[in-house]
């Protein structure tokens, strides 16, 4: 696969319960599609962009995403070393709220062992009874082990007005933005600006900027061309310490830990 080209990967159809996809996909795109099964996606290396309805989510390495059955979504990777492990599970009979919500989660050690076993199945196919037990156990474990969503999701704005504001913020990331300055720029009150963000994004403008910058920082660090100091400068942070603090606030660990690929172990 040419590492410099965004290759279109065809969607697998039909997919049976327990279908496993373990591949080095690298840079690719999978157009909008949906599956009749729920989809557990684990990124071993690289970053994976997940688009679901009006949300854009980012899956860092060693995190997993759950995409409910019959959920229209698409996947994009700009990481040449992207390695993903995907399992499709039949969850129509499962009534836990977890199965109905898209989310990104840090992988618990027990879930990591389950994923390792799933990968091993490619080369050593177990008997049908063992397979059935594995699917049953995995489905029951997911709501227990995936409890705290990672806040790396940005909703799409619904109004033209907020779309213009977010485009302005995104294209002027080096500037220090305040609600008063942005409100004045677009001829609205601070109160109206705050209401727009809360109503359409479910977050404040400040939190949007924090999340957006952390997502951009992950992309820059994943590209491997910039160190933390350079990333801090490119994203308009006042200091490296500010960059690290925001990273810690959103992800729960520092950019240094991310680069070392030594994520804190979940208990």
From TrEMBL:
Which keywords fit this entry according to its UniProt record?
Transcription, Transcription regulation
Q: What is this protein called?
A: AraC family transcriptional regulator
Database matches in PANTHER family: HTH-TYPE TRANSCRIPTIONAL REGULATOR NIMR
Any Pfam family: HTH_18
Is the keyword Iron-sulfur in the record?
Answer: no
Query: Which positions fall inside the HTH araC/xylS-type domain?
Result: 163-261
Q: Which InterPro entries match?
A: Homeodomain-like_sf (IPR009057), HTH_AraC (IPR018060), RmlC_Cupin_sf (IPR011051)
Q: What is the lineage of its organism?
A: Bacteria, Pseudomonadati, Bacteroidota, Chitinophagia, Chitinophagales
Q: Which organism is it from?
A: Chitinophaga defluvii
Q: Does the keyword Transferase belong to this entry?
A: no
């Amino acid at each position: 696969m040419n590492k410099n080209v965004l290759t279109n990967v065809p969607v697998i159809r039909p997919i049976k319960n327990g279908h496993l996809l373990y591949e080095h996909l690298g840079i690719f795109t999978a157009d909008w599609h949906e599956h009749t099964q729920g989809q557990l996606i684990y990124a071993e290396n690289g970053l994976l962009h997940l688009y679901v309805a009006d949300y854009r989510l980012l899956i860092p390495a060693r995190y997993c995403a759950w995409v409910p059955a019959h959920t229209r979504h698409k996947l994009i990777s700009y990481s040449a070393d992207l390695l993903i492990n995907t399992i499709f599970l039949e969850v129509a009979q499962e009534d836990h709220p977890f199965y109905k919500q898209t989310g990104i989660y840090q992988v618990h050690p027990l879930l990591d062992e389950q994923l390792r076993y799933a990968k091993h199945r490619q080369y050593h196919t177990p008997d049908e009874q063992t397979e059935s037990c594995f699917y049953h156990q995995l489905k029951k474990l997911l709501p227990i082990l995936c409890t705290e969503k990672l806040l790396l999701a940005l909703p799409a704005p619904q109004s033209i007005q907020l779309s213009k504001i977010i485009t302005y913020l995104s294209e002027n990331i080096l500037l220090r933005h305040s609600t008063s300055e942005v409100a004045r720029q677009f001829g609205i009150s601070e109160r109206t600006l705050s209401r727009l963000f809360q109503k359409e994004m479910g977050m404040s403008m400040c939190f949007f900027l924090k999340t957006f910058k952390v997502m951009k920082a992950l992309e820059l660090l994943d590209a491997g061309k910039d160190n933390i100091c350079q990333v801090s400068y490119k994203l308009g942070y006042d200091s490296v310490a500010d960059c690290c603090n925001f990273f810690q606030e959103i992800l729960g660990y520092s950019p240094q830990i991310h680069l070392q690929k030594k994520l804190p172990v979940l208990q």
